[in-house]
């Protein structure tokens, strides 16, 4: 690519620096404190659940202005489009440019706020300082109360992280890969231990920021939207069991709001250290489902992994159905008597449906038709439940049950 | 046939008018099938009479707390049946106060669907309103949007925009209602036409640039997009014009990404690499000789950060090395770091650390003059949801970690080693001993160093019986007093 000497316009920079940011899966703007601009007479509010202002044809929500401050980077991480050795077009926003764009977009109701990430220029501290300057300016000079998510630089000084937490709703540090060894191999300048230490430090600060109930003086707020991280799937050899082990560890250790899984996607000017094939998008989807089962459905990691084969989840059916098919002896479940924990294990019954079943059955005895009114479709549920007028008989233990309940094969064309 | 009645509702989502009429009808005992609600301007059916005044002694109907807000929400729906459905629910609730819990009931199900549709429309309005900036005659910037909601939700959504854009002059135009804000109060007005909106806004070009660039052509999922951004909203979204071309070009764009063979790194990359090498970058432990015996405590600490001698390093956050002066006269050894220690990177800062600090304070021992460490330097745990459950280290792990403990002792050369708990005692002595047999005695370790064994402070924390806790605290305090008596220089300055 020829070296561009012509002056890059704001539009050119935006194109380059949003293109560079699209590999970050998260665009969430939820889970922070409630606030508005009525008193401040400024601009911005956050009301608990986030808002997706648009959707791109990749099906992903566009909630935040997700950009890099710069895609110049001194690091050379094999999986990253912005690694130092890549020949992508480069650009850098000034602090003022990011602030102006954010405010202009926000006033027109295009976005919920800013998600700022960056390549590392000069040093980690210098880069982090510039990012904090943007957040500070938005809050203190522009009187902005919208959402701010800063992707922090793991080895930046703890004091900078602490300042970032005063202005940002959410902080995140990417764990990048499922094991420390693969990260060391693919990202020579990154130190997995720095990432963990930073996450630990953030958890302590976030907990301190929440304060105790008894506190008279509330502590200064610190990243009220918590912290999250992202893991790239399929760039190294780690299997799903290893990935879920890592997620379980991260949720337990650092109180993360979310672990985002990002199926490794071909990037322009890819490094020759990367695999040639990309993982199916379905694998990412199955991991999200497994993550949900661990956090909200009372499944243990081992149970989920055992639903698949050789440490990999079943791509053709969801992990809850896979578990149920391998544990037919636990079914059918009586929708009129079974405890919540067991109803949650029935394929096709989500947490909301289970709550509705529980509230309804206090006053009525449920028939199959009633269950049908509460959930999306009965076909997946039917073999695994009994109701007042329904028993699956031999269906639960039938040999070919998998083909009855599995989604049609055309679904496979997704990958 | 029973007589039918009608009541007029003055605006599409007139909750007050509906409530008044519904109360009257209920007091008169008018069954839902005989009650007709007529929007203003429409002719009531011939068979129905206007609703008479309610009897003077009419009782107020009682409803569950969830009903009024449900009714208010479904009245915003565009379905003409909404008033009748709300009344039918009110009627049925008089006989069955748990009706709303019966999610499988067809009336309840329909009401919940309508509620969900209204909420969703509100949510989409929050999301998809697009303001355009114009300059008012007074020079103020004015943000004006045109939006076409599916249900009657302008009044419901206006406060959201007020809270969000308090410092801005704005107007939202819809076919049915309009609403404006200029810092004082929300002002509602009549509907408008699409032509009334501002023609364009320079910022939209940048927004389209962003929309086109943030999209990843390698992950095309147009159905997922359309589920959340249905086509009916597209005509008022400036970015929607890009959707078709982006989808059409996606295959080619991805192919371009893949076809580009890896290129050679630029000169800038080589310079960056050289510069990093000259300035040193982050220290690479291996380059400094991983097997070299450290010469002092600082070197040992630096090396231990990279320790992988047992498997505990991987799930843990960091090595928690000992802390304290390098020639401290007293050397406390615990079992292993816990949750808080693992995060902070320092020994004895969590709940057990508090018990420890308290005992030291009672005995008048200055912790800052002591060296405090653990037998095992990484936290051993199993994750359970949002928590980590402490696991006792096994002898293999204790043995692997003795390398660091011995080095610490060698460099600090304390007069007294205090082992807190059986694991610590085993690590110091190299063999398993019981607390019962060794507690509170001064044991010779070397010619210059004695050992005192006591319990681990977390043992006291875990005692369920407050009496036992009190007794054990006293014993632990006595042991700390023994420490102070044996090493008086560690006492807190009076």
Structural account:
The complex is a heterodimer of chains A (415) and B (494). Chain A folds into two domains: 10-268 and 275-279, Aldolase class I (TIM Barrel, Alpha-Beta Barrel), CATH 3.20.20; 319-414, no CATH class. Chain A contains 14 helices and ten strands. Chain A has helices at 10-19, 95-107, 124-140, 158-167, 180-186, 192-210, 240-254, 281-296, 301-306, 319-326, 340-343, 351-361, 368-374, 401-405, and strands at residues 54-55, 61-62, 64-68, 113-117, 147-151, 170-172, 227-233, 258-263, 333-334, 385-386. In chain A, the strands form three sheets. Chain A has a six-stranded parallel β-sheet with strand order 3-4-5-6-7-8. Chain A has a two-stranded antiparallel ribbon with strand order 1-2. In chain A, helix 4 (158-167) packs across helix 6 (192-210) and helix 7 packs across helix 8. The longest helix of chain A has 19 residues, at 192-210. The model of chain A is unreliable at 410-415 (pLDDT under 50). Chain B is α/β, with parallel strands linked by helices and 494 residues long. Chain B has four domains: 4-122, no CATH class; 129-196, no CATH class; 203-257, no CATH class; 297-490, Uracil-DNA Glycosylase, subunit E, CATH 3.40.470.10. Chain B has a five-stranded mixed β-sheet with strand order 4-5-6-7-8, covered by helices on one side. In chain B, strands 10-9-13-15-14 form a five-stranded mixed β-sheet, with helices on both faces. In chain B, strands 2-1-3 form a three-stranded parallel β-sheet. In chain B, helix 5 (154-164) links the parallel strand 5 and strand 6. Chain B is elongated and about 110 Å long. Chain B starts with a strand and ends in an 8-residue tail after the last helix. Chains A and B meet through helix 1, strand 1, strand 2, helix 2 and helix 6 of A and helix 4, helix 5, helix 6, helix 7 and helix 8 of B.
